[in-house]
Amino acid sequence: MQKPNVIIANPPYVRTQVLGSSKSQGIANLFLLKGRVDLYYAFLIAMVNSLEDKGIIGVITSNRFLYTRSGESIREFLKAKLNILEVYDLGDTKFFDAAVLPAIIIGQKKNTKVNSTKTSFSKIYQSQFLSTNTKSIEKKEDLLYLSSNLFNGTVQLNNSSYLINSSSINLPDDKNTPWTLTESKSQLKLNAKKTYIVKDFLKVKVGIKTTADNVFIRNDWNSLSNCPEEDLLKSLISSCDIHRWKMNNPTANKILYPYLSAESRVAVDLKSFPLAKKYFHSYEDQLKGRKYVLEAGREWFEIWVPHKPLDWKYPKLVFPDISKEPQFMLDLEGDLVNGNCYWIPAYNKEDEQLLYLVMGVSNTNFLEYYYDLHFGNKLYSGKRRFITQYVEKFPLPDPNSIEAEKIIKFAKKSFVSADNNENSLEIAEILSDYFNMKLPKEYRLSLK
Question: What is the mean pLDDT of the chain?
Fold first, then answer.
């Protein structure tokens, strides 16, 4: 059978959670994929393998694989098998009638292992700012035409504005590095006096994953006739509770947390908590339906990702998974953290000072600029994802430097006053000078 020399496709997007663990694992094994997989990964591999040498493939996919850790294996495969000619990250342009943020990838199948060409890479996202280079267009397809010609600037279409960033780049050799337009990773180190990242000092963790939130998380516990014992009900920070620097007007959500306050994670004996036992049994079918909990040797009423009970008492930074602007707040109350957030604990006084440093750096327009350069994973309405693989790579000045001392001081003032933008702007200036990175106009205005 003759292999095709051109493939144009829009493969289906179906994530691991929808496929189910057995099917997703089967696909991962069949196509040598690792971690969380999406069905379109398998389609991409199958299509590229069926393409004749020097054949052309053009696909519309979700843009997630460009940026996420789960996309590492497919990025590695595509770069090994194709000369990637063009990449269009269409972001929140709503170019197609689809719920996902799309990307277009055009590549030519290699007949050697050598990369023979640079990649024309374009990012197109909605923008509320107009650059000095602005064009008007009559139809949305013109966005692609301008991008293919490496246009950089703002485009106006009817009442919408789009920012196009385009360049001819070498895609990173390291599969761990997202595919995005970015300054050289080494440039920051060359420009700075001494640069660290969050991962050098602290660990970023995702919040609690119950896999049955309707059972474990409520704001009406006291109204229940079978309300569990108060000792097992813990205050819970969710994404809606978070503001810059500190929590304001928290919700009344509490989580039923069936663990002892011990170093190791030990589920309570329900015989000692008869009210909790009665409550859990009212949801027994749902909870026992989580086969993965039982297969892991856990009790049927346990939380899937509960973390160590004693870790909650330590000071910690908490921030939402998804938000338009960075919102990092400090919790000193020992509250638990919901799975729609991430958190960074400090186990000693030295680490607590580092929390203020990370919080100060993160709550700035400098960090927004750095994020967009290095990660670029924006969702609709300009929202960003603040997940482990990004936050652990946030840049930090030397903790022993004068600049870090000033940032910590401003962060502490902001924590007391709650959401002081003036302090954020002061910190951004310090960071811009330290890292020798001048902020574009739209970022300098973002907090004013």
Answer: 86
